[in-house]
Sequence to fold (261 residues):
Amino acid sequence: MMILGSMRQEDIWNTDTAQHYDTPGAGMFAPEVLGPAVDRLAGLAGDGRALEFAIGTGRVAVPLAERGVPVTGIELSRPMIDQLRTKVDEATIPVVVGDMATATAPATAPGEYTLVYLVYNTISNLLTQAEQVACFRNAARHLTPGGRFVIELWVPELRKLPPGQDAVVWHREPGYIGLDAYDLLRQHLVSHHFRFDESGQARLFRSPHRYIWPAELDLMAQLAGFELESRHADWIGTEFTAESRSHVSVYRIPPGETASR
Fold:
């Protein structure tokens, strides 16, 4: 049984992690990965302002701001913010230090943002259902009527678990192995990322998650006053099917209505 209580987010997203997080031009920073995400978010923001929950080092926020979308962030980790500050200053992308489930971003008026987004599976870093529901409600508090909350999230891959085992290798390539260990009773997992350098030395990064099925995510959205507007398998609009490994879900507050706060 996995013990997640000792794995604090503040300790996981520390200075060492922040300094090694960015991989310019590769992985989740590859143009074919990042470009479609920024394109889609820019279109959804329109002429309004965008708020990124868990902005991190600005992987998405910086190019989105360069597209002319005013972006504000909320981030729990000060080292990740410090890394962001090597790219842009506070005037360009303001950031509030705090928990994305509860922190309030500055605005000239309540509900000023037309878009709140939370990408790359980060809602699963909230380790209880209550916190995840609170995250939806926090997004709703920041949005104008008709505003959208976008979540990028993986689909739990429980079908890959061999009978009697609780761990699965979900990705491998030269120099890298990704392994997830599941606690099925509590709907938790710990992702293990092993990276190997040319000398054969291994570097391990672990992160805890509470995995969420799409149907459960939709119910969380309803509790906060959102409707599901669209769901695709990726940022370019590929159809979402039973075989999709992840999804981009767009939730919207109906125009003229006030979301559950």
The first strand starts at residue 50 and ends at 53. The two ends are 36 Å apart (CA to CA). Residues 133 and 219 are 9 Å apart (CA to CA).
